[in-house]
Amino acid sequence: MDLRPPLASHPRSRQVRHAQLAVPFALIALVTVVDVLAPPDVHLGPFLVAAPALTASFAGPWMTGFVGLVAVLAQTVVAMVRTTLTDLNHTFQIGALIMISVFVTLFAHLREVREREMVQLRSVAETAQQVVLRPLRDRIGPLGVASLYLAAAAEARIGGDLYAAARTATGTRLIIGDVRGKGLEAVGDAALVLGAFRAAAHQEAGLPGLVAYLEAAVSPDLDDSGDQGESFITAAVLEIPDEEPVLHLVSCGHPPPLLLSRDGRAVALDVDHPSPPLGLAGLVESAVTVQSFAFETGDVLLLYTDGVLEARDAAGTFYPLAERAAAWSGTHPRALLDRLCADLLSHAAGSTLGDDAAMVAIERLPQ
Length: 367
What we know:
The chain is α+β, with helices and mostly antiparallel strands. Helices cover 44% and strands 18% of the residues.
């Protein structure tokens, strides 16, 4: 969970806040001086309402109320200098300024309460992510690993994309998947798949048995949703032996992994006989088929969800993942994902993704 202090406590943020506060006070001083020096038939007092209203957009209720008080005092000084406090025009200006200051102070209070609630929600979401979608270790057996999760919504921290890794006696098993749908239901389905994978990855002797276990674990839950055939989970389940330069792959309707070789090529690992997505095995008769691919020392395997492929630029062009990944094929997993993340957000229109995106990079290290 991110325990960094709120942005406002950062030294640079405090400097920005102080610069912002200078604006309403400067406005009060300017309007007051000009109003005192203006001809008798010119009244600039109504402009003072802009000071507390402006302050309410970035400061809390105490500072907003203080600025409103200063504005009221300034208007009082103008009334005393130009006429008297009992002058009807200035009386109405002061009354209106007090009323507006009270309203914007209340608005600032409500905004501050809302911001506190959002901070608490983000904290809970981050904690949930740490529990459900645990970060992968940088080193798993003979593999160097890096993972990345990008939420489509800025306020989100977790969604329906998932990944996990587990060590066995002979190698490493990994899963990456994407739950159809969004919201809390997708998070629940993702947690169900991850829990089933972590429970069975060490026990099932082969990948077909592991995939069958995952199917049996998620099917009853998806059937209970009432949308039979509409709820499913695409997944790629892999096993990478420690002592063999290969990887074994079962694709359950998931986008094919990319193998980035040392010579700068990006090859999509398309399986000949893909299995149906998890949750659909009861509707489609298909055997679970394992296919093996070469995975040698120095090669990097890139797993991803369709949120990466479906990112569009302003012209509607999809993100060219294979082309971009091939250009950085010589980099280590963490550096590769950092570059892909920056490039993906730069490509996406408004730096906003249309769907959650997850990536996992795996490199076979020298032994």
